[in-house]
Every structure is written in structure tokens, then in C-alpha cells.
Amino acid sequence: MDITITTPALLFPAISVLFLAYSNRFLAIANRIREQHNLLNKTKSLVAKKQIDSLRLRIRFIVAMQLFAVIGIICCILAMGLIFYGLQYSGNITFGFSMAFIVLSLLASVSELLLSTKALNIELEDMEEM
Fold this sequence. Notes:
By secondary structure, the chain is mostly helical. About 90% of the residues lie in helices and about 0% in strands.
């Protein structure tokens, strides 16, 4: 199947929305880390200590999400260039890689979301105990 140069270009609006969402997640987690740091310094809370590992892992997933998305964008741009220069087969393959990296980015996003839910459950359990 041959794709035209407009097919990879269709990913660009979705990619900007992805990066906006990923940046918001990163900023939210950074604020949460600062809050947990202050809480841990003041109270030496076990709940805060439990959250540290979760936050560290969530940061790794957010970095992976952004890294896979950036690689996906680069592959998408390369695919457009290859198709523009008449290298249809190479463009198709590169576009396939682009889509694969975007899917990896979304899977990392789902994993981070599940970790976030676990972290919220730790907080909820602490509130229930009180």
C-alpha cells in the first residue's frame, strides 16, 4: 500500500495534544514530588515513604512516554521527507516505525496512569486508617 505525504502529516495535530498532556503530567508529578518531600521532612510519614518509589517509577514512565513520542515524530517527519523524494517503500517503513513509537508512548502512558491510581489508593488507605 502506498501512502501519500499527507498521511504522516495527519499525525501532527495528535502529537501536539499528546505533548500537552504529557507536559501537564510531568508538571503535576513534579509538584507532587515537592509536596511529598516537604511532607516527609516535616512528618517522617510512612505513607510519604511509600509514595517515593511510586513517584520515581512514574517519572521514568513519563520520560519514556515523551521519548517514544519524540522518536515517533522524528520518524513521521522522515517518512514525509522520504515520500516527498520519491522513496515510497522507505517512507512506508519509516511511517510504520512512527506509528509503533506512538503506540509505545501511549502504552507507557497507560502504565503511568495505572501507577498513579495505585499511588492514590495508598493515600486513600491512609485516610481510611485515620
